[in-house]
Amino acid sequence: MPEPFDYSVVDAALEKCGCKQxxxxxxxxxxxxxxxxxxxxxxxxxxxxxxxxEARIFSVATFYxxxxxxxxxxxxxxxxxxxxxxxxxxxxxxxRVRSELGVTDxxxxxxxxxFTIETVSCLGACGLAPVMTVNxxxxxxxxxxxxxxxxxxxxxxxxxx
Amino acid sequence: MSEKFQTxxxxxxxxxxxxxxxxxxTRKIIVCGGTGCVAGGSLxxxxxxxxxxxxxxxxxxxxxxxxxxGEDEVGLKKSGCHGFCEMGPLVRIEPQGWLYTKVKxxxxxxxxxxxxxxxxxxxxxxxxxxxxxxxxxEEIPFYRQQNRVVLEHCGRIDADSIEExxxxxxxxxxxxxxxxxxxxxxxxxxxxxxxxxxxxxxFPTGKKWEQVRRAxxxxxxxxxxxxxxxxxxxxxxxxxxxxxxxxxxxMIIAGIAVGATEGYIYVxxxxxxxxxxxxxxxxxxxxxxxxxxxxxxxxxxxxxHIAKGAGAFVCGEGSALTAxxxxxxxFPRVKPPRTTEHxxxxxxxxxxxxxxxxxxxxxxxxxxxxxxxxGTANSPGTKAFALTGNITNxxxxxxxxxxxxxxIIFDIGGGMRGDGEFKAVQIGGPSGACLTKxxxxxxxxxxxxxxxxxxIGSGGLVVMDSHTCMVEVARFFMHFTQNESCGKCVPCxxxxxxxxxxxxxxxxxxxxxxxxELLEELADTISHTALCGLGKSAPNPVVSTIxxxxxxxxxxxxxxxxxxxxxxxxxxxxxxxxxxxxxxACSRKCPxxxxxxxxxxxxxxxxxxxxxxxxxxxxxxFGAVKEA
Lengths: 161, 628
Fold this sequence. Notes:
The complex is a heterodimer of chains A (161) and B (628).
Chain A: H1 8-17, H2 24-35, H3 42-50, H4 54-63, E1 75-80, H5 83-87, H6 90-101, E2 115-120, E3 132-134, E4 137-139, H7 144-159
Parallel strand pairs in A: 1-2
Antiparallel strand pairs in A: 1-3, 3-4
Helix pairs in contact in A: 1-2, 6-7
Chain B: H1 8-24, E1 27-32, H2 35-39, H3 42-55, E2 60-61, E3 74-79, E4 91-94, E5 98-100, H4 108-118, E6 127-129, E7 132-134, H5 141-144, H6 162-167, H7 172-180, H8 183-192, H9 205-214, E8 221-226, H10 235-242, H11 244-258, E9 262-267, H12 272-287, E10 303-308, H13 318-325, E11 349-353, H14 354-366, H15 368-372, E12 382-389, E13 395-400, H16 405-412, E14 422-427, E15 433-436, H17 446-451, E16 460-465, H18 470-484, H19 490-507, H20 515-529, H21 533-537, H22 540-559, E17 573-575, H23 585-589, E18 595-596, E19 604-605, H24 615-619, E20 625-627
Parallel strand pairs in B: 1-3, 2-3, 8-9, 8-11, 9-10, 12-16
Antiparallel strand pairs in B: 1-4, 4-5, 6-7, 12-13, 14-15, 14-16, 17-20, 18-19
Helix pairs in contact in B: 7-11, 7-14, 8-9, 8-11, 10-12, 11-14, 18-19, 18-22, 19-20, 20-22
């Protein structure tokens, strides 16, 4: 038997953002802040509460890049591929990390659920290019070696637990 | 927090007290709290300085209060972005005006002992260029040639403090707009100043406000576009982080002028610090009565809400942005009707960009004539640019309209980084164009750029050197736009996809004769038929790179060669058998096991497996791995 879904997080989001259709983006953001993705169970529940169709909520959730319908790894690593990072060589870093972790553009999360590798179009930290973020902490002036060092140290930390 | 101001006089009274306390803090340490420096650890520097000063019995003040804290007080502030991100974390010392660069936590003790206590300058932390040490911030070439109007407070005041903003004259323009001017007069002043929208289009702000004022509707809105999605641009972020109150002041003035009582700020979710600072600024403004039902007893009401974006570039477009605030997919719609008539919740809406609102309070405060004295005749004022790419001094700059690219890149930006030669600068992001050597002396303003098929856009300047492949740059932007295309109209959804496919095959070495002409034809169709500005301008980077660098396209297609040596698929990496010592370091480093060989004999790279990541090149101590 799967555990019953706990709707208290969704209720809290509705409470915080207001139980109205125009707040749907803020509500989904609040739910995602908690789970790091949007659990399927939330959709029918929101549909009922907000009196809007599940399809419309789904259409919003799939339109915006920031929403994820899939579970993410413990460490979400984002590589900036904005113009500034791009001309300072962000792609070789990304390719090295992807090939070492065995992930691709379509399969973003490692099998051990530890790392999710994503790209973002610009983090606005162009002065520090190329940058990557690990759970929103910015690591400036990356090289393929430096990026791998950060990832290895996280791996070591997890394994020693 | 202090009391709620019920009248103009009570705010003026508090301002006088805060100003006195502010002026008493002649000695100040200002730590940059912009995203760039925070990433470099500036918040740890702030905390360490605070602890050290308290421990050593220094009279340190971190907040501004009504009463000054004695003659020996030293103010410690966290400011917005100083702009010189390349040299961060930055610490400014007042009253001397010294700027310390690349400061580390370990330097804090020395700053305290030498600079704070003894008043001595630390040479090691200063900025030097070409053997000259520049002690004062204003003397550094990067700053000397700028004219900071919108960014004047960024890096000078505590970004988190409404007291400090009020102390230096903040919200005086709002008072003027509320009590000394009629609504029409506010609009007249803005019209007279010829302030043009800083978001890229350059539409006259005063005209827009007038349209909204005249439009019929019970509820009108003021919306601030902080969805700075252009890759390589961070001007708006720096204003929201560094001087949030100035932007709020501009929005409230707009609200009064057009008769709106509700305002929204649409901010990218990628800017968490800006969201945090804006939230704090709004709640402080509410608690002192500058936002709310009866602003300073004037009987006028205005409230501001924050709407966080969720990662869609198209939401920078007006009608898509308002759809997103309404909780819908960010689809643009056919215009007219314009946002000024049917904007947010189908009501008349003023939609301006962050930098535009931040300029408003000064125009009201100092008058349109002052504003007209800066910049060029048809594009007065200044413009903030984010200077990035292969340039020595990356960062945030502000110059008068009409400044040449040469001055920006070589005098302020310090020229090229590394050994490359200047090749091009991308202006206006994915909707913009590439400017080349021949445009270096063109005065930058709205009309000049439009004349050569480019646009200022929001103000990102990405500098590229001779090692940058222009075909790859075009592919990069097309990939971006294709990814961000909302999919509503066919020309953009399908057209950009086809253009991307062609560009991808060209950089992979599979380009065919006729590809350039096909790209040009698609570009022409898309720019004439797409629904919104995103689609219409999507082909711009391709068109301008073909126009200026056609021979690079031809080399890729005909000779299967990348003249800049950047396209990975066209690279040939090999090991020079004469130099290789057979140490196996490269083969151990190779992520795809493409290198094999016997120890102490020359190794070999299997080009079928090689992903051209270059890690072997950086690993080899003997320089035996080469590119051709």
